[in-house]
Amino acid sequence: MTTASEIRIAPSILSADFARLGEEVAAIDAAGADYIHVDVMDGHYVPNLTIGPGVVKALRPHSRKVFDVHLMISPVDPFIEAFANAGADIITIHPEAAPHFHRTLQAIRALGKKAGVALNPGTPTDVLDHVMPLVDLVLVMTVNPGFGGQAYISLPEKIIDVRRRIATMGRAIDLEVDGGITPETAKEAIKAGANVLVAGTAVFKDGPARYADRIRAIRGG
Amino acid sequence: MTTASEIRIAPSILSADFARLGEEVAAIDAAGADYIHVDVMDGHYVPNLTIGPGVVKALRPHSRKVFDVHLMISPVDPFIEAFANAGADIITIHPEAAPHFHRTLQAIRALGKKAGVALNPGTPTDVLDHVMPLVDLVLVMTVNPGFGGQAYISLPEKIIDVRRRIATMGRAIDLEVDGGITPETAKEAIKAGANVLVAGTAVFKDGPARYADRIRAIRGG
């Protein structure tokens, strides 16, 4: 099992103040965030519309932490290069949004970025069967994506399955969990094998003075 | 012809700093902007993805000026209510993105908002034939929408045609022009009958200290 010092926290700016995102990104960086998680939605793959590559580009100078960009857009291919150029470090895609899923992962890698695969709650882990050599992160969604503030869907066996697949690869691959993460649900996800926890509401809900406490509580340290 | 005092300037925050949009909105308000113009793009109706209703909601407390929201999203119907609830005052749609165009305009009005119709450079003014009673603003695009910084497409006869249609209605309807607006192109558009000028780069390019000068120059006062 992963120890607390190896756990990474990725606050999702979906729950930040969109009127001052630069400050928010700098604040979570200072509060100990490991990754800056960016939820990109287009109103097609999911029923919400959030922020695009221009916003990522504007935020990039506000933190040197890893920009972990989760693309909930369909089709995703036309935007891979824009997010790479905007300063994403990890680009995570959904197989349902990429008809040539293997090629899209190759394209992300070819741009010098890390490639992630996101699994909706109902998506089987079998979609990973033939692409693991191209994968740097697997994101197990514990809510159906679209909106912040939803309740955690407990899927420990799915997380265990993904951890087992990662173990066979013999290299560092992140296992990220996103949706309904609190200090309590984080504990369950970590026990099952997650090493990166995305958290929106649980980090941002009480304002900047509490960001460091909140991140520490989710990390379980 | 419209006099300088009747001209309204609508800076487009597409050209603002996305990392501190709240401050940017307050700054253009203080600099004399009449409307706050918000360009919403979904990567489907146009090949760019910008900001959604959550951002509009976050910006609403930063200005009491008119929020003039231009929806370049298709289909547009699922998002009308979200933008109304987020604080839009004017909601402008494209006929190509609304298969039941007349009904969508009714829906915007039913939510207590002003309804706008946007015409791409290639869209004929005939789309207005049967909807003028539902229209509070006509937006003549002088670039093909998607990105800031494009060159003005001169369409004076189209603007004159729209002004003539408005004149027959006997009530205040805005004639807005958007795309490549500078103090020079604004003069041409105003001469043809425009009374609201959207400007992005021309307002924002030299930073907040110049916003008031830039707005004044476009207004031609």
UniProtKB/TrEMBL annotation, chains A, B:
A single BP term in Gene Ontology: pentose-phosphate shunt
Binding site for substrate: 12, 70, 146-149, 178-180, 200-201
Gene Ontology CC annotations of this record: cytoplasm
SUPFAM superfamilies in alphabetical order: Ribulose-phoshate binding barrel
GO molecular function: D-ribulose-phosphate 3-epimerase activity; metal ion binding
Binding positions (a divalent metal cation): 37, 39, 70, 178
UniProt xrefs under CDD domains: RPE
Catalytic activity reported: D-ribulose 5-phosphate = D-xylulose 5-phosphate
Metabolic or biological pathway, per its Swiss-Prot or TrEMBL entry: Carbohydrate degradation
The keyword Transcription regulation belongs to this UniProt entry's keyword annotation: no
EC annotation from Swiss-Prot or TrEMBL: 5.1.3.1
Annotated active site: 39, 178
Domain of life of the organism encoding this protein: Bacteria
Cofactor binding: number and manner: Binds 1 divalent metal cation per subunit.
HAMAP family: RPE
Function description: Catalyzes the reversible epimerization of D-ribulose 5-phosphate to D-xylulose 5-phosphate.
Protein name per UniProt: Ribulose-phosphate 3-epimerase
The organism's taxonomic lineage, starting at the top: Bacteria, Pseudomonadati, Bdellovibrionota, Bdellovibrionia, Bdellovibrionales
